[in-house]
Amino acid sequence: MKMHRVLVLLLVYSAGLGLSPLESDRVLFEGDYRLKDGEWEKSFVLGPKHQANGFYLNVEGIEEFAVLVNGVEATQVRSGKTPRTRIRTVELTDCNYLLKTGVNRIELVTPEQDKDFWVRVWVSDRAWYLSSFHAHTTYSDGRYSVHDLLQMVLSEGGRFYAITDHDTLGQCYDTAFHQVGNLQPIRGEEWTTDSGHANVLGLEGSQTVAHGPILQMIDDGTYRGGLVQINHPCDLDIGWDRYPILDPGIDAIEIFNSVTWFPPGDRMDSDAAAVAWWHELLAEGKTIAGVGNPDYHGVLPLEGVLKSCTRVFSHAAHIDTILKCLKLGRGMVCDAPDDTRLYLYADTNSNGSWDLVMGEHFRIPSGSRTVKFRLEVESADWTDVVYIFDKTGEIFSHILWTGGDYEHEWTRSFSSQECDFMRLELKAELGLDYEMCSNPIYVNHPDYETGPTEFVTAGIGWPDTLYVGQEDTLHILLRNTQGYSPYRFGLKAACDTGLFDITGWQTSGNGIGEIEHQASVEGYEMVEWRGGYTWQNRLSVGTTFDFWLTVKPKRTGRHPILFRSWADDRLFLVEEDPNSGSPGPENKYWYQRSVTVEALTGVAEQEQTLLRTLIQSVRPEPACDFTRILVQMGKHDRAARLQVFDRAGRRVQRFALSHLAPGMHSINWDLRGETGRQLGPGIYFIRLETRNRSEVKRLTIVR
User: Fold this and answer.
1) Is 228 a residue whose pLDDT tops 90?
2) Angstrom distance (rounded) from CA 29 to CA 119
3) Which domains does the chain have, with CATH numbers?
């Protein structure tokens, strides 16, 4: 038989993994077929745009078989010891590298000879990844090296593993800290304070999060692109000191923590208390992910590198995507890596297909809606108990006396005014100990918890009138008015290419970031400034960033200029200002501020000459020993200010203008600062501010 003639590339016992494809999955084929001499094969076509992150097979009517993909044995399926459902589900995701664009062939080889059966094969843009987000090495109080720990995780089938030594990132610079086979390590640290422990996952930079007030530590971790996870919040001596308060900026709660902390009875109570607290937060309308981790040290009995763990449902095998899906709660929390599995689905549009899984949201704009849910338990142990919870608590339970597989479907009506959820639990030994928890499917919940970042974006002191063909500078301000500095933020301005030319731009404030100029996007010329952790720019509460845009009008009339701001935490967009208002390019909302543009001729030109205060020129530029600033003073600008700033936004010099009469004036500057010392080489900004407008000229000093 073919089973003996092929190279066995992967040989595992393959349990079911989700009995039904999701609405977004692509079924390659399904139907009734017949074995011939214990063998069957079928070809199918996979197009170049068909993502095959997840690869699955359903079989009904055959109990034991081998699966071959394009002539290579992918897996063997054997009979289980406990009762199974009539449909066997086989996960082939780890073998999707065997697939190719074009014609593919799948084969079944079984000891059963001539028999009718049913089969379905599908691919998905999402797959389940066995992961853990809390473990230690010899860089803190763990027993094993980075190399040995990763090898152990790889041998148990782990795909993503965060090494989070206490108050250090040294392990992330170990020569063994790299991908091993399919296993990818994740950067992280566990901050360890008297107020509690937390992991910061995906942290940028080499410095640890400095100890201080908890809210400041959360801000530091968020600012550096880290996902903040509370560890063992309800343990007796090392719990979260702020429990039962959920601080803003927390991304996940460790509801399962393995047997590291003894005696085992305390650990069981700690998990139960953590799950109970998590449920209370969900019932309050919070959207917060539950996660399970081993907290592995390798120094106590019964530890395992993946006991506990989290199976993450992700559309890419990429660390950032895994962390994003973890934050969204796209996963199941497991007591052990090779144990029972628990799934939750919803059909929210009554079309007979499952469109949501755990961690996902749906909203009801008005009225009410009836939603169908489904739970699946696979390979349960004897006397396991499955539970369904909504915000009121337990609403259903079932004892699996003989273990095995179990399915249950139910419907529930929700109104647009309700904030609710559905989640699952599985407990062993008639409900005495946790085996699994699903994250919820949310109903009318906020998207997710994030640290407060709120922007004010405004145009400041714009001139009442602009003139065709004459440059003018517009001042736009960006300020963060709440709590946490985002990892990255930006300010963007746009002008209709038929109405304006953008001829210059400058920035000052909390450092200088990256500027991108696009000459034409959907009929607009755009300039975007981007700052954040990458450039060591922080936008903490109260910090202001100033942006100057120089424009030259082309036509008379009343014309709009658009601007907006945004921020992210590396994984998510957390702020957009405005989030409603005037639609504009890039399918975004923009602030729209209109300015009057007039023709500059005759009397208007003479009046403009007398009324406007501006910098005519800065020469020479670059400068070595001196430069001359030519300033035109208007009739009503005796309070105008002329100041010089360095790249960090610090003022280094200022010049008095109040004694100057209307007209042209030359200010000779020897390139010394306010202290009288010569300024060092670099880029500086000369800013002129009046009651109605401001402008900036750049000066480069060379020595």
Assistant:
1) yes
2) 8
3) 2-125 (2.60.120.380), 126-338 (3.20.20.140), 339-451 (2.60.40.10), 455-600 (2.60.40.1530), 604-701 (2.60.40.4070)
